[in-house]
Amino acid sequence: MFNPLNALLGLFSLDIGIDLGTANTLVSVRGKGIVINEPSVVAIEAKSRRVVAIGLEAKQMVGRTPANIIAIRPLRDGVISDFDVTQKMLVYFIRRVHQQMVLSLPRPRVVVGIPSGCTEVEKRAVYEATLDAGAREAYLIEEPMASAIGANLPVTESVGSMVVDIGGGTTEVAVIALGGIVVSRSIRVAGDEMDEEIMRYAREKYNLLIGERMAEKSKMAIGSAYPLEQEQTMSLRGRNLLTGLPQSVEVSSVEIREALSGPVHVISETVRSALDETPPELVADLMEHGIALTGGGALLQGLAQRLSEETRMKVYVADEPLTCVAKGAGKVLEELDSLRKVLAATHRDGRWH
To answer: Residue 202: which CATH number?
Structure first.
């Protein structure tokens, strides 16, 4: 029902889109674009649970904190694992946005991207955390839908679109048409799993214990899903498990590709499984328009080429793949009347009352 007060507040409030990711949290503001892009990490005191640092400052503490301070990621596999800490993180980011703009503005309307495999309990946790963080209105949107909107795919038209959103904790695969998700897959194999496989590979082959940051650094620098034109090398630094002493090992992109082969294969099979269930008319559309890759995992070298070869379709990386979910969530609030139906997949009308 039309509420004139809400309509008036909507003209002056900050409309915020949030990609509440396992690895990073991105915040977009209507008319401003992405204003926050920081790690989803919170440093807290072990006994009192008092927050010491949030975001980039907290990430720099990972693996380097004294015993009384722990750096944690309150989201695991795309869902909230620590409600209280997630709420504090949301409060921090939403207040930062408000302080950057005009302090006297009404409380914001917020759209949050969630994995398509979320349970009702997990959805409610995100919704309540968003309201508790100071949102005037809270809406939820499934991440593949948000990333498709952020990638400028024609989600409300009858033509079929396909998006593969590879984040830190989850990979979301969806075929979309007429404002709804026709086929979807949500697997908990994504960037984090890739980092863990690199750590396991270094441990098993070189008896080298490396940290998450070193694994992520090697993935971003020389990781690939398809043979490179010119293979590369880099040093992995860690601790030798046999001697207990620091050690540096030179590894090649071929080795890192071997370490990543398991997660890449699972993602590829998930895409093929989704295509297998897609109606023939929509498959014809996908053959013409291709498959969009979004999320941080889309930046893995050669992934589009590998998926293209295995699906026999055009696969491309969307523009600014890291920001697609946040931009899409923000765009929904800009065009709420025309895009309201994309929220319906989350709940009866996209929100709880």
So the answer is: 3.90.640.10
Per-residue pLDDT of 114-131, as tens digits, reads: 877 777 887 888 888 888
Structure letter (DSSP) for residue 302: T
Are 290 and 167 in the same domain?
Answer: yes
Asked whether residue 5 carries a pLDDT value surpassing 70, the answer given is: no
Give the angle 299-150-177 at the CA atoms, nearest 5°.
110
pLDDT-based confidence at residue 346 (cuts at 50, 70, 90): very low
Question: Residue 291, exposed/middle/buried by CB under 10 A (0-12, 13-18, 19+)?
Answer: buried
Phi, psi of 103 (to 5 degrees): -65, -25
Would you call 216 helix, strand, or coil by DSSP?
A: helix
Range of the structural domain that residue 222 is part of: 191-259
Q: Which residues of 60-76 are buried (b: 16+ CB within 10 A; e: fewer)?
A: ebbeebeeebbbbbbbe
Q: Write out the two tokens for 262.
A: 């398991």
Q: Does residue 50 sit within a domain? A: no
**What CATH number did the domain enclosing 8 receive?**
3.30.420.40
CA distance 214 to 194: 12
Domain count, the chain: 3
Tokens, residue 181: 């998700």
Q: Is residue 176 part of a domain?
A: yes
Element (H, E) at 192: helix 191-206
In the listed set 259, 284, 301, which residue is the last one of a domain according to the structure? 259
User: What pTM does this model have?
Assistant: 0.86
- Contact yes or no for 26/113 (Cβ under 8 A): no
Q: Which of 253, 250, 249 is nearest to 301 (CA)?
A: 253
Q: Which helix (H) or strand (E) holds 291?
A: strand 291-294
Residue 186 CA to residue 345 CA, distance in Å, equals 15
Are 131 and 16 a contacting pair, CB within 8 Å? no
Specify whether 183 is located in the same domain as 301: yes
